[in-house]
Structures are given as structure tokens and as C-alpha cells.
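note to self: the first set is below, dont mix up w the second
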Amino acid sequence: MEMLKLDETEFPALPVTPSEPAAKKKTTKSVHSASDSDIIGTLSQLINERSDSIEKLVSGNTERIDELSKKIDIAFANIKEMESKICKVEGRMLELEKPVKMLEQRMDELESYSRRWNLRLYGVSENKEENVRLQAVKICQSVLPGESGRLSEVIDIAHRLGHKSTTDSRPRPIILQFTSRMMRNEVWKRAKTSTYLKANGFLFKEDFSKGDRERRSKLWPFVKQARDAGKTAFFAGARAFIQGEGEIKI
């Protein structure tokens, strides 16, 4: 049997470890150990400095937060005090609201009562030298010729309403105040069927207070509904009635 021959290039000889490199390796290890210590020391110093900086920042923020908290507490206390004062004022206003409404109602009633002596006249042309009262008296005499003499006495005041408009060419209405309620009512009654007023384009209307106008405005839909249904519905001042049913209440 033939023996196999080994190729030395495939199985090289083991290296021989010299003694001197071992000493060099120890020296290198010592240098590395010294460098690691320096790095750790530097890192520790940086961490401590950063920690001190963060601590100062946190401390400063804490002081600011405490100061802000005190200001918020003061503001909250002021708000509570204002709320208390507002509640007291509101309570006082509620106490005064009822008598104020009663006074307003009473004033409206007095104004409404005083206007029952008045009539408004529309359609009378204007001129600079006009005598408004004389014109109003003559028109009323034409409506109620049987009382011509008395009408010149019982028509106390007659004047135009408002200021002359530069954009509205229509003549301003005239308000008449009578000293006799009976004569005022008679003129108002005859004016509804007066052919003289219709022929000349004149029109009488009642003089209502703001409160009366608002009440009539609220009542009008009910009056119209009744009239559309074939019923007789009418106003008497600021009140409305349906014939056979009585006053309309809202």
C-alpha cells in the first residue's frame, strides 16, 4: 500500500510566539486603560455641569410658576368678587323692573288718553305763507257744516308734523287738537263717509301713541282673519272687536 504525501503549503507550520510582543501588549493595555479613565472623567464632568444647568432651569421655572399661580389666585378672587357684585346689581334691577314697567304703562295710558282729543289730517298741500289752523278749521267745517261756528272755537291747535323733506314731495300731515272730545268724535265719525274729503284727496286718521300702534299691529291679523271669514271686525282705539263675539284678547 502506497503512503499519501502531504503538501506543506496546505498545512503550514504553526507560528512561534515570541516573548517580547507579550510585554508590548501589556504596555498597550495600560495606555488604553488610562485613556478610558480620562474619557469617563470628562463625561462625568459634562453630566454634572448639564445636571446643574437643568436644576437651575427647573428652579427658575418653578419660581415663575409659583408667581403665576399667585397672580391667577388673585385674579380668580377678583372675578368672584365681581360676580358677587353683579348678582347683587341684577337682583336690584329685578326689584326695580316691575315698578318701571308700571310707570311705563301708566305713561303710555296718559299719552293715549291725551291723544283722544287729536286727529291727523292728510293731503293738505303746503306753502310758505300758509295758515295751517285756518285751513284745518275750514276742512272740518266742510265735513261738519252744522257746527261751523263751534269748530272755529274748539280746534285749539293745528300744525304740521315733522320737518319738511327734500326727497319726499308729499305734504306733511297736520295734527289737530280739539278742546271738545264730543266735537272731535263727531268730525271723526262724519269724515268716514264725507264726499268732500274724497273729492279733494283729504283723509282723517286717529292719532295713536306708540303703545297703541304696537297693540293695533298685533291685533290686525286677527281682525283681518275675522273679516276674511265674513265677520264684522273693527277697532276702537287700541282695542279690537268682532261683532257678536266681543273684544279680541291676545
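second set (the one i keep forgetting abt)
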Amino acid sequence: MPFMTMPHFTTLGFSLLLAFCLVRTTLAQERDFTPIDVPGASATLANGITPKGDIVGSYSDEGSPPTVHGFLLSQGKLASIDVPDAISTFATGINPKGDIVGHYLDFNKRFHGFLLSKGEFTSIDVPGSTYTFANGINPRSDIVGQYQDASPPFKTHGFLLRKGEFTTLDYLGATSTLANGINAKGEIVGQYQDSGPASNTHGFLLNKGLFSTIDVPEAPLTAARGINPRGEIVGNATDTNGNLPGFLQSKGNFTAIRVSGSALQGDVGTVATGINPRGDIVGYYEDSAGNVHGFLTSKKLIEP
């Protein structure tokens, strides 16, 4: 993994109270969802959360064309994350040590994964890949993500990066596999596309080398995106009516996650992306006007 230069952090310098509370809507208050909006951004996505509540994500500025930046929200302060000399930067995962992973687009229009640790960026590229995304990182600094191979039909594979070694992750018989999250136990969640005529998408859990499928009932599309040490899983689904809810799976039971006032259908709906050990959940949602916002909620606030 080639070494990169020091990160560009821009402290936006507003308090957590201002960041969260001033953008809170009446509808969101009814269900105890807290919107997360970077000031001046056209869209904000929250993607990962640590045990103490630090949040990483991405936002689009209002430039022409817009540029995507990563962000870290920690102890009431928001900082932008930009890989040097990149067109756009996406922050997707964070561990308790504050190590951050994501991906960036270079000026040759190629995506690379990255690790930001102790103020330094390191690129992550699976050998022989056409692109690499890093999606999740656990306390041991194991990293999961996805890559595309360089041979037709250019298949997408999941990967695990542990102690400098890449392991490819492919769900048996799938046409594509994406690894999205990993917990302290090394359990991995993600999604795969089956080879059936409808090419349905399913979530998966990979535990001790064994894959198991995760399907939200009556949903032709399920994506598992985050998992905490207790094995609680969050993600998103598309049901048979075209609705787009997020979900929490806990002890084998599914609970729908939908921010009040969010679009039932559309391009996004509600997507739950990360969950920490105490059950705090982050994600993003689309409002009725088509705008995308991050959110923070808690397992205890959404369960019946």
C-alpha cells in the first residue's frame, strides 16, 4: 500500500448543539431522529459511528460541479477530510482508535481505498483491480471493502485486509459480492447479487468462514451495512411495493427504520449504515423534496 501525504483537515468549528439541534425538524423530533447536515452542503451522508459517538460520513458542496468531501464529527467539532490531490473523498468507516477508511477519486478518474491513521493517509488498492473501495474497519484495524477485477466480465468481489494481506470474499454462486462492515469479533456483513433471472440482492453475514443470507421479509433487495459486537446488524431494503426502509436486525428480529417525513420511495428512502456497541445508529435519508440528510438515532428509540 503506497504511502501518501499528510491529510487536509478543515475545522468547520461549530458546536454539536448547532450541528444537530438547529437543523432538527418537527417531524424528525416525533421519532427521535436527529438530522445531521453539514452547513452549506447539498447532501450529507452519515456512514460510521464509534463507541463514544464520533461519526464519519461524506457531504457534497455546492460547487459546479459539486465536490464530495469526507467529514469527522467528534466532540462537537466537524472537520472535512480530503485526500490530497483527489477529486472527491468519501469517508465510510471508523474504529475506536479513530482510524478512518473510505475511498477517493483521483484525477485519472480511478477510485482507490484509503486509511487515515494518526494524521497520515495510506492508499488501499487490491492488486490487479480496476477500483477499490474500503468500507469498514474494526478495532484490530481489519479492513473490509470491495474491488472490481480487470478481466471481463469485470466482476465485483469483497475483500478483507488483515495485517497487510488481502483475502477475496465471494458468496458462492453470486455475480457480485460487497463487504460493508466488520465488528471486533471479525464478523463481516455485506451484500451479494444472485444469479437468478431477477438478479436479486441479498445481505449476508460471514462468521468464521461461513456465509449466511440476510433477507428482510418480503423484500427483493436487502443490503447489510453495519454490525456491532453484539451481532446487531443494520442496513436497508426495498420491499415489494417499492418502499425503501432501513432496518435493524437484533436477535433474529427485524425492525424497520424510517425517518419521519422521509420519502417512502425515490432514489434513497432511509439507509442505516452503522451501529455502535450501545445501539446508536447512523445513516442517511431522502426528504420529500429529494434532499439527502444524515441521521442519528438509537436502537431503543426505534424498537417497539
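remember for set 2: Residues 16-21 form the longest helix (6 residues).
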